[in-house]
């Protein structure tokens, strides 16, 4: 069963009673990992029948230039009535194997990849048969079965595939947790349902519908806007200050009205290539991070309850528009955000959890050094009056940013963080995360094609050659530019 069918089977309905709104992106990643693990264990341990669903398997094998072995494998597949979908060969790379595995192999031994379609029982049987053949004929000792490649995890291939991302609110149920400020407010609950419908009905290519905000919502925005922006001069990084100023000039940012997502999205496309997409509330961690890979930020349109203008138990448009959007208008920070998204595509549940934690300690609660002072760039800080002051103070621990450490650091969702990570610059943070990405295992390398807004999987000669031509063209452009500069 593919990951896509599994994720559809475990769609979550929205309920304040289950405290989804109190969970962070990290908690959601942990929840999905536990749920998927439980499902996988159930799936692996079930009794398999001949009419069980078939799905694709991939194995790699090493051959000592004895093509009779290849014929033997193909015959085994035929006998088992297994459909061979794809086969390709390459010279083996010793870096992929242990010394014990490659002992005795000559330099031009072949590594052959098989993709075939069958039931899980048939897959187990064929692996067992191949292993028996290897043991029975000692002269076939160069036949080695490499570990099965990670299971088929569905990833969006085109930006329109984000339409398939699962809202955690498949049916809006506003019976909020009793400690939520809007628990007893029927008008607020109804309003949340009304705005949520915009996100549920939105599809790729649509213009984002405009919201006619109530006066109470505008007043909530006004108080939060004035209070938070008054702190930015002393506490926010320069990218945030520049971003807010330009948004005031281009998108109608200001205390008197709530800016519209469609206007902001069009502006971001011009400045950093990012765009906004309306979301009803929370997405799964995997789907949220996948959106970033396409330079799409999932953005809420509702406001926090008017009784608590400086506090919200969940992300709202004040958090998104004041915390995230100004930073996403910075081209380099936008590139960093996309890097985390690209890292998540095809990653395991445990790696999604690490990436969600990394997102938490950078994009949500990150700090930076600026002229020997500590400033905030994380959206969770820039949209929180109290925690912004707390984070910059001497109360919490400030650690130099190390993605390997930050990605496994415990966090606080219900209170201020005891630990914050401080970067030297966005450039340095981006480079460290690129190195961190090498520790994430996935089936194939990928790249984002901004012209077609697609994810290209680099798993064949054609795709790699195309990438080479793209890189060569960019290098030629750089060389011509440098030559022109030196001429003058």
TrEMBL record:
This protein's encoding gene: DjTH
Q: Which cofactor does it need?
A: Fe(2+)
| A biological-process GO annotation | aromatic amino acid metabolic process
User: Which SUPFAM superfamilies does the entry mention?
Assistant: Aromatic aminoacid monoxygenases, catalytic and oligomerization domains
InterPro entries (UniProt xref)? ArAA_hydroxylase, ArAA_hydroxylase_Fe/CU_BS, ArAA_hydroxylase_sf, Aro-AA_hydroxylase_C_sf, Aromatic-AA_hydroxylase_C, Tyrosine_3-monooxygenase-like
Q: Provide the family line.
A: Belongs to the biopterin-dependent aromatic amino acid hydroxylase family.
Q: Which GO terms describe its molecular function?
A: iron ion binding; tyrosine 3-monooxygenase activity
Keyword Cytoplasm in record:
no
- Residues binding Fe cation are 319, 324, 364
Q: What is a single cellular component term in the Gene Ontology annotation?
A: cytoplasm
Mind listing the UniProt keywords for this protein, alphabetically? Iron, Metal-binding, Monooxygenase, Oxidoreductase
* Ranges for domain Biopterin-dependent aromatic amino acid hydroxylase family profile: 140-486
- Please identify the protein, giving its name as recorded: Tyrosine hydroxylase
Traced from the root, the source organism's taxonomic lineage reads: Eukaryota, Metazoa, Spiralia, Lophotrochozoa, Platyhelminthes
Q: Which residue windows are transmembrane per the record? A: none
Q: Which organism is it from?
A: Dugesia japonica (Planarian)
């Amino acid at each position: 069963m593919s990951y896509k069918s599994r994720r559809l089977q475990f769609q979550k309905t929205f309920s304040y009673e289950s405290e989804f709104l109190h969970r962070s992106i990290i908690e959601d990643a942990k929840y999905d990992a536990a749920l998927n693990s439980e499902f996988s264990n159930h799936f692996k341990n079930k009794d398999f029948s001949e009419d069980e669903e078939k799905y694709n398997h991939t194995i790699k094998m090493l051959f000592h230039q004895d093509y009779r072995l290849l014929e033997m494998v193909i015959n085994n597949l035929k006998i088992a009535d297994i459909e061979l979908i794809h086969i390709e060969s390459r010279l083996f790379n010793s870096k992929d194997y242990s010394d014990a595995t490659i002992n005795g192999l000559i330099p031009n031994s072949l590594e052959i990849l098989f993709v075939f379609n069958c039931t899980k029982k048939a897959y187990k049987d064929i692996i067992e048969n191949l292993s028996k053949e290897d043991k029975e004929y000692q002269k076939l000792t160069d036949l080695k079965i490499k570990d099965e490649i990670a299971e088929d995890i569905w990833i969006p291939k085109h930006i329109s595939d984000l339409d398939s991302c699962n809202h955690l609110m498949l049916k809006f149920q506003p019976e909020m947790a009793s400690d939520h400020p809007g628990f007893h407010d029927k008008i607020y609950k109804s309003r949340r349902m009304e705005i949520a419908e915009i996100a549920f009905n939105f599809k790729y290519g649509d213009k984002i519908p405009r919201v006619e905000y109530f006066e109470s919502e505008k007043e909530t925005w006004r108080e939060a806007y004035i209070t938070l922006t008054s702190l930015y001069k002393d506490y926010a990084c320069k990218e945030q200050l520049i971003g807010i100023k330009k948004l005031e000039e281009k998108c109608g940012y200001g205390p008197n009205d709530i800016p519209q997502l469609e206007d902001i999205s069009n502006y971001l496309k011009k400045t950093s290539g990012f765009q906004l997409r309306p979301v009803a509330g929370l997405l799964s961690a995997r789907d949220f991070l996948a959106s970033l890979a396409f330079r799409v930020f999932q953005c809420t349109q509702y406001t926090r309850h008017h009784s608590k203008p400086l506090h919200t138990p969940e992300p709202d448009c004040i958090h998104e528009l004041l915390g995230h959007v100004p930073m996403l208008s910075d081209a380099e920070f936008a590139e960093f955000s996309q890097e985390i998204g690209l890292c998540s595509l095809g990653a395991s549940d445990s790696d999604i959890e690490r990436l969600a934690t990394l997102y938490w300690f950078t994009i949500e609660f990150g700090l930076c050094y600026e002229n020997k002072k500590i400033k905030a760039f994380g959206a969770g800080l820039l949209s929180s009056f109290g925690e912004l002051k707390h984070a910059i103070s001497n109360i919490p621990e400030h650690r130099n940013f190390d993605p390997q450490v930050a990605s496994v650091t415990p966090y606080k969702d219900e209170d201020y963080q005891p630990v914050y990570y401080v970067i030297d610059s966005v450039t340095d943070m981006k480079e460290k995360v690129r190195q961190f990405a090498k520790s994430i295992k996935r089936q194939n390398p990928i790249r984002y094609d901004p012209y077609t807004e697609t994810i290209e999987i680099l798993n064949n000669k054609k795709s790699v050659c195309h990438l080479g031509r793209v890189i060569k063209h960019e290098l030629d452009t750089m060389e011509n530019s440098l030559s022109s500069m030196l001429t003058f």
